[in-house]
Amino acid sequence: MKLVEPILGWQDEISAIRRDIHAHPELAYQENRTSGLVAQRLESWGIEVHRGLGITGVVGVIHGKAASQRAIGLRADMDALPMQELNTFQHASRHPGKMHACGHDGHTAMLLAAAKYLARHRGFDGTVYVIFQPAEEGHIGAKKMIDDGLFVRFPMEAVFGMHNWPGMDAGKFGVCVGPIMASSNYFKLTITGKGAHAAMPHLSCDPIMAATHLAQALQTIITRNRNPYDPAVLSITQIHAGSADNVIPDTAELRGTVRTFSGDTLDLIEKRIGEMAQKVSAGFDCQAELAFDRKYPPTFNHPDETAFSVQVLKDLVGAENVDAAVQPSMGGEDFALMLKERPGCYIWIGNGHGDHRTPGHGMGPCMLHNASYDFNDELIPLGASYWVNLAQGWLARPYTDKS
Questions:
Q1: How is the cofactor bound (predicted)?
Q2: Which of 5, 58, 282, 300 has CA 20 to 30 A from 197's CA?
Q3: Could you tell me whether strands 299-301 and 196-197 are parallel, antiparallel, or unpaired per DSSP bridges?
Q4: Whole-angstrom distance, CA of residue 152 vs CA of residue 145
Q5: Residue 130 and residue 288: Cα distance in Å, rounded?
Q6: Cα(194)–Cα(250) distance, rounded to whole angstroms?
Q7: Known binding residues
Q8: What are φ and ψ of residue 195, in 5° steps?
Q9: Binding site for Mn(2+): what residues are annotated?
Q10: Nearest in space to 189 (alpha carbons), one of 130, 239, 148
């Protein structure tokens, strides 16, 4: 393992920043304290700072020794989740109902460490843009930054992202060409019938019966309509109906998520949800209305940029610690929207198996979106070293115009 030596020496400093962010989590577009801390640190290291992209986003501009037009973007996310933390260690969340349960505090810290190094070692040609994005957790902060001119104001050849991955050994990385994360989409089905006294069900058109049958039937879209070689997930996550034990309600609601790697498969699933909802509901003399929200497309890693990232990783930790054909996840990531604007690559850095957690952690596993999660601070020098080597190596290679 070939860590960048000065970064290793900043371990305690950057870990303290990470834990401070963890203790003060902020939800989507509310990352005022976090973005202020990021901006202040960048400015203290002599980095040009631009605030307000995507409401609370921050971009740092690190110019190299030469006035080259070459440029690369490195992105981290900053927002927390609306969850109650179960950990009780010193840096646990101080704000009830808010928690850094996905490691965005660690992503921010790793990129800050890299920015500090690059600001002090500007021997590269061109510019490194460090992008601190708000609102990744379902609120499309990447799109907000793009709409505010991210790639116009800060023209870059390619953009790169990184996410910690619990269950993968610390010191290892995962990446693949093509989709590494699925599209993220949500649906709401409103079933309308006719309410009645529960003791006289024959006078009703029961939307609960329609909803329960539909919840079962929707799974056949995955098992009978979809090509089994094309991954897809349809999960019903909420069912809402009724307000009293002796009343059959007028309406019932089903909510859930659909994840795919293929646009054609997503089109098929959306179409079949609508068709099936209408026909199953009609069988119970009810009507159905579908609202389908396509949030994020698949996170698609471009071949050339992925090959370059893989080589940087192999040089950093050895080929045996890089899975260059990792199994993709059906989770979603709005970095996908940046990859639709510029070529790039998104990688996973192993967060370990939870052994790093200090006394006071919750009883649950150290998995993403779990109330007992905590980022592994030992990753900070490793992730930051990847960022540094990636940026320096990218700007040192011959320019290829892909316009």
A1: The Mn(2+) ion enhances activity.
A2: 282
A3: unpaired
A4: 11
A5: 46
A6: 5
A7: 102, 104, 137, 163, 369
A8: -75, 160
A9: 102, 104, 137, 163, 369
A10: 239
Average pLDDT of the residues of the chain: 96
Token digits for 306?
């992925």
Question: Distance (Å, rounded) from C-alpha 175 to C-alpha 307?
Answer: 10
In this predicted structure, what is the pLDDT of residue 68? Answer: 86
Q: In what side-by-side order are the strands of the sheet with 322-323?
A: 48-53, 57-63, 125-133, 66-77, 158-166, 344-352, 173-174, 322-323
* Domains of the chain: residue spans and CATH: 5-181+298-396 (3.40.630.10), 184-295 (3.30.70.360)
Q: Which uninterrupted H or E stretch holds 162?
A: strand 158-166
pLDDT band for position 151 (50/70/90)? very high
- The model carries a pTM of 0.94
The rounded distance, in Å, linking the Cα atoms of 174 and 166 is 12
Sheet holding 287-296, edge to edge: 232-241, 251-260, 184-192, 287-296
pLDDT at 286: 98
In one-letter notation, the amino acid at residue 129 is Y
Residue 292 has pLDDT above 90, yes or no: yes
Tell me the C-alpha distance between 400 and 114, whole Å: 25
Q: According to DSSP H, which parts of 123-262 are helical? A: 141-147, 150-153, 207-217, 219-220
In a 13 Å sphere around the CA of 74, the CA atoms on its Cβ side amount to: 31
